Amino acid sequence: MTQQIASAIQKSKQYIDGLTIHSAHNIPREIVSHEDRYFSWDNEKRSPVTDKPYLYDWSYYNGVVMEGLLDIYQANPADTEYLRYVKEYLDAMIVTDADGHKSLSRNLAGYVDHHGADCYKTAALLLRASNGQDDYMQICSDLYRDLTDPKHVNSTGHIVPTEYTEAALGHNYWHSWAKDRAPKYKVWLDGIYMLQPFISRYASLTSDRAQLALVQERLSWVAKTLLAPNGMYYHAGNSAEDVCAYHWTRAMGWYGMAMVDVMEVLPEEYLPERKAALKLFADGMLKYQHESGMWANVADWEVTETNRLETSGTAMIIYTLLKGVRKGWLDESYRDAAVKAFLALTQLKLDESGLHDIYLKASANNTNNYERPEYYMTDEGKGAGPFIMAYSEMLYLR
Hints:
Blueprint: H1 2-19, H2 28-32, H3 43-46, H4 60-75, H5 80-91, E1 94-96, E2 102-104, H6 112-115, H7 123-129, H8 135-148, H9 160-163, E3 165-166, E4 172-173, E5 187-188, H10 189-205, H11 209-225, E6 236-239, E7 242-244, H12 249-263, H13 271-286, H14 311-326, H15 335-348, E8 350-351, E9 354-355, E10 358-359, E11 376-377, H16 381-395
Antiparallel strand pairs: 1-2, 3-4, 5-6, 6-7, 8-9, 10-11
């Protein structure tokens, strides 16, 4: 097994480096400075099934890839190439106004304060890359104010924490607030990951106990309200009776990653509840782990050509389990299932042509687009990023 792990780690490193720090195409400063260029993993820009011109270089597709690289650096601080790459990406998006104020370029991040939760995910990357007294921190302060200040009117004339959160939703944010209209299901599992790690980390740094209490409340609402009888979680919902019923592995993966990232900074008194929720989540997912070690796109459905063993969700579960064990929140016994999944992922989905079977999207309005073969893509950011994060956790096993 030790040799298998070493081989899988080496194979993964070659892929990750070729995609990012050693790529001749994916050069951050060059891509960010040209409107007609984009990272090869940004399949929303080149997908045959969508056309989303509002996606900018500041997006969670790019952010999760960069955050994975930062995870590698933190696992091994000698790997400074990864940190330089991340900072090159972030620095390329910062502009300075006449008063010397630093902000995100509106040409590159023009939808941040009005589109919804997805647009704030990369704020967590800024915060993690900050030394606390730099341009990154100043921008994080602005983004945090957007999300939490009940007196702050954003650039579109709205007050986000009063207009787009609800007490009945555990004070969770609507996943989307574009066009000032709530989506069919307001709270999505991926929305938890897009917002709560950033909010909790910033609140911890600034001793904002009120926001930390809200983060705890939001996670508790999800753990109670979106938990299904089979131990898995609904993709999205407005209440326990009004849910998007599909158990999409990636949606649950976003939620798992949110839990372990938030738990790093929550006050100690909140951790017993979070540990219990994490164990419940892990046990529910392990019930549906495929014999190969991976998870299917819709986790509780039979594996077929259209409901394939899916890369992004599997990578997220690996990251969640390994980080949970490493931090002492999960028992050591959970490590074996995660390692089995990582070995399967590198054997079944990674080859010289890329990382395969990353599902492009699945709707949260009960429209069944979960079995469309054309949605399975290669090197898509929602899979490449979590794969890099899973790899970073495997590095600690050495």
